[in-house]
Here is the input.
Amino acid sequence: MEQFSSGWKRNYYGKGDVTVYRLNRDGHSPAGQSPVFGANVMMLVYGDAFWPTYVSGDNAGLVATDSMKNFIQRETLEFEGAGFEEYVRFLGSKFLDTYPQVEGVQVSATEIPYTSLAAGSAAFTPSGPERALARIELNRSGIVEIASGIRGFRLLRLCGSAFHGFVRDQYTTLPDIHNRPLHMWLDIECSYTASNAAFSNGATAQALRQLVRDVFQSFESGSIQQVIYRIGVEALQAFPALAEIHLEANNRTWDTVVERGEELGVYTDARPPFGCLGLRLRR
Here is the structure.
């Protein structure tokens, strides 16, 4: 179920899973931008003008969701930036300007990342797995909500992770672990001290991505909870524009097949179920 920061809506509709790629086909783009800008977009709108469609089938004020898809894809040609925060603001503002019957719009976009095969090359390959994301809600008064972050981190640490000293009772089968190969997934979403603080043309997302990698590779931990807490604290310290950071991790540590002490081991993908750990930190 979709939710809106502005509160309960008796009706809303829109288009999801809209894919679009803006390509600088000569391989040249402004400094700090990739020639390949890929996004998966969802647009939702609300307003009393659409209520007759629900109660009587009267579509006189309705903008077809197929038209929304075309709007997103075609207007991406006019978007000149690189940041996903700027991108969702651009689409949402333009849609409100185009259709006066719309009271409010929520646009979310997730990066479809590609990386160049070589510096200056016109050849690319899919990259990731982490992907920038942004979500904005706009109404006739301006920005209601802007949030962004990075989804899809897949992080492996060969050593330097422990998990022991937890509650032991009749349900406990997990042994104390003092040095494990840790495999975790991580999603991050941030809100901002002010709406205009969210817009950095992608610089904040790029720096946050590097901070997560730096903390994970350097920090020896006693739990995944401690890892995500350390990431959250350092992110708030590093980025004064952040008001809140929400981190959600999955424990995807691989199952052990056989080990030779702590020097060598063979492992396989973890089976479900998996541990899910969340944390919210505010400035």
